[in-house]
Design a protein that fits this description.
The protein has about 290 residues and is an alpha+beta fold. About 50% of the residues lie in helices and about 15% in strands. It has a six-stranded mixed β-sheet. It is elongated, with a radius of gyration of 20 Å.
Length: about 290
């Protein structure tokens, strides 16, 4: 009975692990579902012999994610337009395990799109090791079994991944300044004040929109403050029923685009002085948590 409760309670933790490894809710759900399927395929005696089911499920989920990461890279080569991580509400995937703060990035940043984009540049093994150790404090000895590497090799993988993650996290402004700039962007966008919108943007800003072939979106990145401002204003002008709503996301304040009662888009931002990146999610398959 205790095992059953622990297995049931592990789902939220497993989703948090899988999402950070895979970057989309749907893929994370698939990985967790496969881990549970493998648990229930065990013989009753095999399940009873597992002392910590949550740890077993975390290992299996991580192995499934490792396999999925390899095939995901091939799929994304044929993806329609830019591929972006799925934007999620601020409290969607909290970290549930303690860890040494000297060996990890800030918790609030471990599910940000900026970090998930950095993770995309890592090898599958680097990504799995970083997420398990630096985010969820899993010992290297346990991770080694998951990725079929030695603990020393896992330590090296984590070190290289951590360096990239910290470089990314260190580029941005304080949370308060981030909020101020994004709110100014939202006010300007709602008012249609193009000049004010441009002032919130860094001259080198880039906007990427992800439609995934399921919604109209720019197939290539949009560069420069003037072009990004005009592109964003154009989206709103073409859809006069669209309403912008402030929502906290894992990237700080975001702007949800609501039409006919449904969120049809979500804009999240990177800020370093002005807004340096706009990520516009329009793919309905990656807006599942908002509807």
């Amino acid at each position: 009975m205790r095992h059953n409760q622990e297995v049931s309670d592990a789902r939220r933790h497993l989703m948090a692990v899988a999402f950070r490894m895979l970057g989309t809710v749907t893929e994370a759900e698939d990985a967790v579902q496969e881990a549970y399927a493998r648990w229930y395929r065990l013989e009753p005696g095999e399940r009873a012999a597992i002392e910590v089911p949550a740890a077993w499920l975390t290992r299996v989920t991580s192995r499934v994610c490792l396999d999925m990461l390899g095939s995901a890279r091939a799929r994304r080569e044929t993806y329609v337009g830019p591929w972006l991580p799925e934007p999620v509400p601020a409290s969607a995937f909290p970290v549930s395990a303690p860890a040494d703060p000297l060996d990890r990035v800030t918790l609030d940043e471990t599910v940000s799109s900026a970090l998930l984009v950095v993770l995309e540049s890592m090898t599958p093994a680097e990504r799995v090791v970083f997420v398990l150790h630096d985010v969820f404090a899993v010992p290297f000895a346990e991770i080694a079994e998951t990725v079929s590497r030695s603990p020393a090799a896992c330590r090296q993988l984590a070190g290289s991944a951590r360096k990239r993650a910290r470089e990314t996290a260190g580029r941005f402004v304080t949370p308060g300044e981030h909020v101020r700039v994004v709110r100014a962007f939202g006010v300007a966008a709602r008012s249609g004040d193009l000049a004010a919108l441009i002032r919130t943007l860094d001259p080198g800003v880039v906007l990427r929109s992800d439609g995934g072939g399921n919604a109209r979106a720019a197939l290539n990145p949009v560069y420069g403050a003037d072009r990004v401002a005009r592109f964003f204003a154009g989206v709103l002008a073409r859809r006069p029923e669209l309403r912008l709503e402030d929502h906290p996301t894992s990237d700080g304040p975001g702007l949800a685009m609501r039409e006919d009662g449904q969120v049809v888009g979500m804009a999240t931002f990177e800020v370093a002085g002005g807004i340096t990146a706009v990520r516009l999610m329009l793919n309905p398959r990656k807006l599942t948590l908002w509807n």
